[in-house]
């Protein structure tokens, strides 16, 4: 469903330019000319009390004087005038605004106050949408709309460009025109007073002209909305993003190792990867990826074949590919045999395919056709170096013809200057992305491979509690509330470990010793050797103050260490409150590996998890990985695999590896701890000792958000990705007494979903899916079983038959991005039809709509499905049979809870 009223901005039937002017090069004059000269076919009006017409366009003193309805108003007046103009537009029924004016929060406190005034004014008019202020404007080439003050208009294309920088927009436009790259939409978002990046991603997902998005962003304000929109879009189409401000520092000093290691940019990096977004790190890559995306063909894997007429460039391309972890595909014997028939005997007989410097166009054509047709190849790069006998233009024509026979991506690097210019133009005109060097081509190809890899994570929907985890939430909350009675924002090591232990994360037993005598007593209790560490709420990095002593073997060593630790801590931190030391048994694990695991609250994306190389050098080596909670098994394992120390965890040069299954489980348990308690703002387990037998927390530290402790927020509001909504599960019975569990669908339900569909007759399937198919596929199942629970939910009816769990029905709600309307669909297994399953699912889904604040529910069914139509009628749905002969639409308006 389209995002509310954004059609008024991107597909308007009429546009008014407020602040239109006759003054050449003024913003008001440029916008008006862009609309008229750009070929916009709708009505265009100028608004300026000084004129009656501007360049043949009728001019009015105010929007209220325009005699016809206006969809979009483009405001070009000084900042101080904008709030009243927004009021006038709202009263005139205009629901789309683009505010180009500058001088708002980006300029001064007074400007920020004006922006708030606009926000308040806009709230008075339902459905009013605003892009800007302080923006370049918007362009929708397929609608011949240029509502901006840019000097040029892009051609029609399939890539939507969204930018937080107006200056970058003009640079991209200039480049696009030179490279003949088109766009479906082009948006400068400005200050994002109303319409934000997430809104635009959602809108372009519904736009038939948009097949990919290029995104330049500096900051995000609503992490969950952004993640939901990006994840939904990236399931089907790629997003390429450049994130500026990579080295911005957190405004608040970190109170833990995790806080110091999880910087602002690294959190964005983790969020983008989880959302399926491909991130680039320089603007050239952004342009190169835009060119690839505009050509439609995407690689199905990382296996690249390189065809070249020169050995050096082939080596350059190979180096660039391997450096970025691409795969130089090994050509099969069948492919080599075909090439032997077409290429001279001196060809390279492998990949890269060197067709020799004297290669005529026909040789390029033959090599491209054969290699593109090879099963072992996912994409092809053709590199041409202009040598004395080379025909760059003829080679380009030959490559173009050969590429037409394949659906695989082909990219080109035509190296040189004037000699290759005509060939480059031909390749670009025919939709083959062409680069000036092999390295640039490889970078662009690998970014698209990254997109394919990232997309896999989109089908890893986290579960609130994995099946094998038996967590008693009420009991755990009681444990946490007891710990909170300490009254400290930074929990002691013992209190932190108590919470970890409640989540069945193994910890070493720790005792607090206030005196040397206590330390000796506890050392004897836990057994030698022991470790002593300073115990102070004011000291995070214990080793920095000489606050750690290890491998103490007897009482004398413990006494000496106790006194030494306190003395050194007092010297380094005279103001710190020293409560004594902690005493714990010193684990001896020659095959163990020290890790750090932890969590940090990010102001945009909420809770973020970290795992990395631990111990005293944790922050020095920066070998860490971040992920958004909660974790699935695969996500936890991917975090570990991304570490440089992964080979050591697996086992290296005869040394045994650690217990990876147990380590993955600890990461998952930690993620659920963080998800369950929004009060936790930072958490450290450093070190976590991983051994071949298991994993144990040797030290722990938890930092609490005092305000969250006093005023607990809504469940999971601190997470950017909504976990499995267990609150929508309930046990019930059918009329015949059959026990049925109604619950949200899970990814692991895929086998039972296939069985459910297989139990339905062709007629039932046609009524549900509105088309016929022979069998379900994994691709189909991922669409129905892997959901973003923030905007879509499927409730399954599960029962047990002959000792086997099975699904007997599914009701599905898909809400629009504004959570105003939801589409509803239902399927019930043929043997269970007529037993009340459909009614039970429908009633439960309507209850969910109430909790979501949905205003109306719409369902579509076939006229012959009288049982379904009767069920909807019985629940006060309005039945509309006027849409089409093969369709009945049922709609129910819901009471919105205040």
UniProtKB/TrEMBL annotation:
SMART domains from the UniProt entry: CoA_binding (SM00881)
Signal peptide: none
Keywords associated with the record: ATP-binding, Ligase, Nucleotide-binding
The keyword Nucleotide-binding is annotated on this UniProt entry: yes
A Pfam short name: Succ_CoA_lig
UniProt EC number: 6.2.1.5
ATP-grasp domain ranges (all copies): 497-533
Record-linked InterPro entries: Acyl-CoA_Synth/Transferase, Acyl_CoA_acyltransferase, ATP-grasp, ATP_grasp_subdomain_1, CoA-bd, GNAT_dom, Ligase_CoA_dom, NAD(P)-bd_dom_sf
N-acetyltransferase domain segment(s): 740-895
GO molecular function terms listed in the Swiss-Prot or TrEMBL record: acetate-CoA ligase (ADP-forming) activity; acyltransferase activity, transferring groups other than amino-acyl groups; ATP binding; metal ion binding; succinate-CoA ligase (ADP-forming) activity
Keyword match RNA-binding: no
Family: In the N-terminal section; belongs to the acetate CoA ligase alpha subunit family.
Name by which UniProt lists this protein: Succinyl-CoA ligase [ADP-forming] subunit alpha
């Amino acid at each position: 469903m389209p995002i509310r009223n954004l059609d008024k901005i991107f597909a308007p039937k009429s546009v008014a330019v407020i602040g239109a002017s006759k003054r050449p090069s003024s913003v008001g004059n440029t916008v008006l000319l862009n609309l008229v000269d750009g070929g916009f076919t709708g009505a265009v009006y100028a608004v300026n009390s000084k004129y009656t017409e501007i360049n043949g366009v009728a001019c009015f003193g105010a929007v209220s004087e325009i005699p016809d309805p206006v969809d979009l108003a483009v405001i070009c007046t000084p900042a101080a005038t904008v709030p009243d103009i927004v009021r006038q537009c709202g009263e005139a029924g205009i629901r789309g605004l683009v505010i180009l004016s500058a001088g708002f929060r980006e300029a001064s406190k007074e400007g920020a106050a004006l922006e708030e005034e606009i926000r308040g004014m806009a709230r008075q008019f339902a459905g009013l949408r605003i892009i800007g202020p302080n923006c370049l404007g918007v362009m929708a080439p397929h609608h011949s709309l240029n509502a901006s003050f840019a000097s040029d208009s892009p051609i029609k294309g399939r890539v939507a460009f969204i930018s937080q920088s107006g200056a970058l927009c003009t640079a991209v436009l200039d480049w696009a025109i030179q490279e003949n790259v088109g766009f479906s939409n082009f948006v400068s978002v400005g200050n994002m007073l109303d319409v934000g990046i997430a809104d635009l991603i959602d809108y372009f997902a519904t736009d038939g002209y948009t097949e990919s998005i290029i995104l330049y962003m500096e900051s995000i304000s609503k992490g969950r909305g952004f993640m939901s929109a990006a994840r939904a879009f990236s399931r089907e189409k790629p997003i390429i993003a450049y994130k500026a401000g990579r080295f911005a520092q957190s405004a608040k000093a970190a109170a833990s190792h995790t806080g110091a290691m999880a910087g602002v940019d690294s959190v964005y990096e983790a969020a983008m990867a989880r959302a399926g977004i491909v991130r680039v790190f320089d603007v050239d890559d952004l342009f190169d990826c835009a060119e690839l995306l505009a050509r439609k063909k995407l690689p199905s894997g990382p296996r690249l074949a390189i065809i070249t007429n020169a050995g050096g460039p082939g080596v350059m391309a190979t180096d660039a590919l391997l450096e970025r972890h691409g795969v130089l595909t090994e050509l099969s014997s069948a492919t080599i045999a075909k090439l032997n028939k077409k290429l001279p005997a001196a060809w390279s007989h492998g990949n890269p395919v060197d067709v020799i410097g004297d290669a005529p166009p026909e040789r390029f054509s033959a090599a491209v056709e054969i290699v593109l047709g090879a099963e072992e190849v996912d994409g092809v790069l053709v590199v041409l170096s202009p040598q004395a006998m080379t025909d760059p233009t003829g080679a380009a024509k030959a490559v173009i013809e050969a590429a037409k026979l394949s659906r695989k991506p082909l990219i080109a690097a035509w190296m040189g200057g004037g000699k290759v210019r005509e060939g480059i133009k031909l390749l670009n005109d025919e939709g083959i992305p062409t680069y000036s060097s092999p390295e640039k081509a490889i970078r662009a190809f690998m970014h698209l491979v990254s997109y394919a890899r990232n997309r896999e994570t989109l089908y890893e929907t986290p579960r609130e509690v994995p099946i094998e985890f038996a967590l008693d939430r009420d009991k755990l909350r009681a444990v946490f509330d007891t710990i909170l009675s300490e009254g400290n924002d930074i929990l002691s090591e013992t209190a932190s470990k108590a919470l970890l232990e409640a989540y069945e994360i193994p910890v070493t037993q720790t005792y607090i010793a206030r005196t040397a005598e206590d330390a000796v007593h506890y050392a004897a209790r836990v057994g030698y050797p022991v470790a002593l560490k300073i115990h102070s709420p004011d000291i995070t990095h214990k080793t920095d103050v000489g606050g750690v002593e290890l491998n103490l073997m007897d009482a004398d060593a413990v006494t000496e260490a106790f006194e030494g630790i306190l003395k050194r801590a007092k010297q380094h931190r005279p103001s710190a409150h020293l409560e004594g030391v902690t005493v714990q048994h010193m684990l001896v694990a020659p095959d163990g590996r020290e890790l750090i695991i932890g969590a940090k609250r990010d102001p945009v994306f909420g809770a973020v998890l970290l795992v990395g190389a631990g111990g005293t050098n944790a922050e020095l080596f920066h070998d860490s990985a971040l992920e958004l909670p909660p974790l699935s098994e695969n996500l936890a394992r991917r975090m570990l695999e991304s570490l440089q120390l992964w080979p050591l965890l697996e086992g290296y040069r005869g040394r045994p590896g650690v217990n990876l299954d147990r380590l993955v489980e600890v990461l998952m348990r930690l993620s659920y701890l963080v998800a369950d308690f929004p009060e936790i703002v930072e958490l450290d387990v450093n070190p976590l000792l991983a051994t071949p037998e298991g994993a144990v927390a040797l030290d722990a530290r938890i930092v609490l958000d005092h305000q969250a402790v006093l005023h607990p927020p809504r469940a999971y509001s601190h997470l950017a990705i909504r976990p499995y909504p267990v609150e929508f599960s309930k046990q019930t019975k059918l009329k015949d007494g059959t026990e049925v569990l109604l619950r949200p669908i899970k990814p692991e339900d895929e086998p039972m979903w296939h069985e459910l569909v297989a139990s339905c007759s062709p007629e039932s399937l046609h009524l549900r899916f509105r088309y016929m198919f022979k069998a379900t596929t994994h691709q189909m199942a991922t669409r129905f079983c892997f959901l973003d629970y923030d905007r879509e939910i499927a409730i399954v009816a599960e029962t047990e038959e002959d000792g086997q769990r099975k699904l007997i029905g599914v009701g599905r709600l898909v809400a629009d991005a504004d959570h105003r309307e939801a589409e509803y669909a239902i399927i019930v297994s043929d043997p269970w039809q007529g037993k009340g399953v459909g009614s039970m699912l429908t009633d439960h889904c309507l209850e969910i709509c109430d909790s979501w604040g949905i205003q109306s529910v719409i369902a579509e069914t076939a006229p012959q499905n009288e049982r379904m139509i009767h069920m909807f009628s019985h629940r006060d749905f309005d039945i509309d049979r006027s849409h089409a002969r093969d369709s009945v639409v049922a709609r129910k308006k819901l009471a919105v809870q205040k």
